[in-house]
Amino acid sequence: MESVSTKDNEKMTPRKRKRDETTSSKISKTEEISSETCLDQPGDQSIHEVVNDEPSTLPAVHYDPDTTEPISCSLKSLDELLSWKRNEASPFNVATVPLASRLPPLDRCPRRTLVSHDMMGGYLEDRFIQGAEQEMPYAFYHWEYIDIFNYFSHQMVTIPPVVWTNAAHKHGVLSIGTFITEWTDGAKICEAFLADEESYRAAADKLVQISYCYGFDGWLINIENVLSETAVKNTGPFLRYLTDQMHERVPGSVVIWYDSVLKNGSLNWQNELNDDNRMFFDACDGIFTNYNWTEQSLERMKSYSAAQGRFADIYVGVDVFARGKVIGGKFETNKALELIRKYELSTAIFAPGWVYECHEKADFRQNQDKFWSLLSEYLYIHRPSSSLPFISSFCQGFGKSLYWRGQVEMERSWFNLHAQEIQPLYLSENMEKGGWLKSRGCSEDAWIGGSSLMVEGVIPSGLPEVCARIFSLHVPLATKTFVSFVYKPPVGVKVSLELKTIDVPLCTFNGTEEIASTSVFPQALAEDNQLVEQFVQNCGRWTSDGWTSRCFLLKMIGCSLREVCIRLSRDEGDEDVSFNCRIGEIMFLDAESLHAPLQSVQGICVNDVVWQKVASNEHEHEHGHTMKVLLNATLRWQYSTQQVRHFRIHWRHLRGPDPRIRSGPLTVIGRSYSTLYRVVELEVPAAPGLIELVVEPVSREGFRVPEDRWGRRTLSYSSSGNP
Fold first, then answer.
1. What gap in Å lies between CA 432 and CA 428, rounded to an integer?
2. Which of 39, 562, 601, 642 shows a CA-CA span of 20 to 30 A to 171?
3. SS3 label, residue 718
4. Rounded to an integer, what distance in angstroms lies between the CA atom of residue 86 and that of residue 302?
5. Nearest-5° angle of CA 159, CA 698, CA 143?
6. CA–CA distance from 573 to each of 437, 493, 534 (Å)?
7. With 50 as the cut, is the pLDDT of residue 519 above it?
8. Which residues have CB under 8 Å from 577's CB, separation 6+?
9. Cβ(673)–Cβ(418) under 8 Å?
10. Using one digit for the tens of pLDDT, what is the confidence trace for 198-239?
């Protein structure tokens, strides 16, 4: 497999990321593998630390050696794999988002789509678990079209960065890593771990433990080197053992073999499933074929006896870079998919980041939307299937600024896929008489996060309105369902909602067939409606800045929400009308939840403290530069992550050397999307001092959590040799 080289008005302090290469009552995975325990820190006591010049002892593979910020990484050798220990794993790289339900589920999808991301070697800005500063990053957001996301690199054990696994899981997509050996060095590795049953079981056990620990869903096995007679004899049993153990430990997981080695151990890409590679296919969940297939290859697989009943497990490879003698690729990848679907096979789309690597970065969104729009005819639209609430502000996980309720909270470019919300359908549709309709992500303005949904087009003469479907889903509604819709109304066009529902008895299907639905056109509630007043009270007042908020109440029994559509109608006349409508957020809540109490943050503790002293050029005196004191520390706490959008992390100065200086105000220093946060390079007053670190939960609905339910921990510190 080949790859290409190529805040409430409070402002968060910007930090440039370096580009070096380097809950519930149950105990969470992050707590199990933490280096220190919170039980050593009673909640009613301040923590005391001594400021020192000692270097960080945190493992450099998991923490940036300069800043100590947490990073995702791979394992580069067999020794690293076999010596891997769970208690030495990174707690920050553990996925916290469970795999969401969707329709059709993977096992009912007869023609699946796998994406192998292969982005410039991997572990770029996406390795920074708490986010990075980047002008225009690569991100994937067409999750509704795919079933499996494979994070690919040429490092031996490629562990998906947690930001990708959480984003995939949020949309019901499996996230799998890569185990790869290549060429001469790869052959030596295979001779070692495929030498006998004990050896291959030891390697497989570690792969299973890593997947289970970090919360991702399986492996692509990519052996691209010659195998000896002994090694190839043990490859089938290795795959079977790995697959069985993965299924047992991680239900719903998959192990997929890449088409490379043959049953005789030679390296010879077949570009199809046949007798020479069938033994590997029979031992695992599927095969990812090489890219140089022909229609005759597809015909042979369609009639091949070993493929019968398993067409969905044959992932026909498509190299988007179109290297070699291939069908399709680039913006003609749809030609390859047309043939693959003709023979009812699955597909593996390799390196769709071509739209990013080989084009202007400023045109990334436009090119990515074009690429997937061309493929959409041959892909299923998977429907998120969940209970209420259903909420999305359309954030794609990056932006030019970070917004909260229409206000800029942080004014700089940023990238963090943890922030990506449930993605809408991105459509492009041409109509008769010159009409057209398109939806796209836009970072020029947002309600929450880094982007909003822009619905734009032309209502042609003779047509009173157009309708944009923004979600296909499966969400059972409450007897009373409260709906909030935030948008910026376009000039000369009326905006309204159309919701499509079906009866619950029809919602038990798991297939791909369409079901007749009923359209509902909800009417907006008055501002003095009791539920609206309660909603506004929960959210707090906000400055409109052109945003319009409308609330609705659905009273339905035994119904499930099937589609969410935006209707755009002309105000008057019959001429062509152009429009641009920015959608900020849509929420569907059980009306009873408007009165539900919000829980408190519990058990906040501080671990893994590292101090740094650096020269300051801002304050000079006769003896030279003063020294800045920087605090680095890990915060942990307890809270149900299913109830929150994110956590804001604050700090403030309580006391220092000069008693005349008053305590400082709370200042936001970052966001966390789990119950874990690494404070990085926080400048604090010179020792001795006392500061407070504060964790504010932000509910999924955006409701304000009273300050008395935030988590707080004070930390006192002194210089070496001083009490």
1. 14
2. 601
3. strand
4. 43
5. 40
6. 20, 11, 39
7. yes
8. 458, 459, 492, 493, 570
9. yes
10. 999 999 999 999 999 999 999 999 999 999 999 999 999 999
b/e sequence 703-713, b meaning 16+ C-beta within 10 Å:
bebeeeebbeb
Give me the amino acid identity at 467. C
Decide: helix, strand or coil at residue 51. Answer: strand
Single-letter amino acid, residue 94:
V
Angle at which helices 197-214 and 229-249 pack, to 10 degrees? 30
Counting runs of H as helices and runs of E as strands, what totals does the chain give? 12, 35
Residue 46 has pLDDT above 90, yes or no: no
Structure token pair of residue 443: 């970072």
Identity of the residue numbered 170: K
* Per-residue model confidence (pLDDT) at position 15: 38
Q: Are strands 113-116 and 148-150 parallel, antiparallel or unpaired?
A: parallel
- Packing angle, helices 333-342 and 364-375, rounded to 10: 20
Give the up-direction half-sphere exposure of residue 453: CA atoms within 13 A in the CB hemisphere: 28
Q: What's the distance, CA 596 to chain centroid?
A: 28
Please give the radius of gyration of the chain, using alpha carbons only, rounded to the nearest integer.
Answer: 27
> Could you tell me the two tokens for 256?
């997929």
Angle at 452 between CA 576 and CA 448, to 5 degrees: 145
Give Cα 477 to chain centroid, integer Å: 26
Structure-block tokens of residue 230 = 């002994």
Tell me which amino acid residue 306 is.
A
Calculate ∠ Cα 616-618-624, nearest 5°: 60
Count of beta carbons in the 10 Å neighbourhood of residue 23: 18
Average pLDDT over residues 133-137: 92
572 burial (CB, 10 Å; 0-12 / 13-18 / 19+) is exposed
CA–CA gap between residue 165 and residue 162 (Å, rounded) = 5
CA–CA gap between residue 408 and residue 403 (Å, rounded): 4
Q: Which residues contact 272 (CB under 8 A, 6 or more apart)?
A: 259, 289, 293, 297, 298, 300, 301
Cα dihedral: 447, 171, 316, 305 (round 10): -160
List phi, psi (to 5°) of 413. -65, 145
- Hey, what are 712's tokens? 């707080």
DSSP conformational letter for 262: -
CA atoms within 13 A on the CB side of 425: 23
Tokens of 541: 């007042």
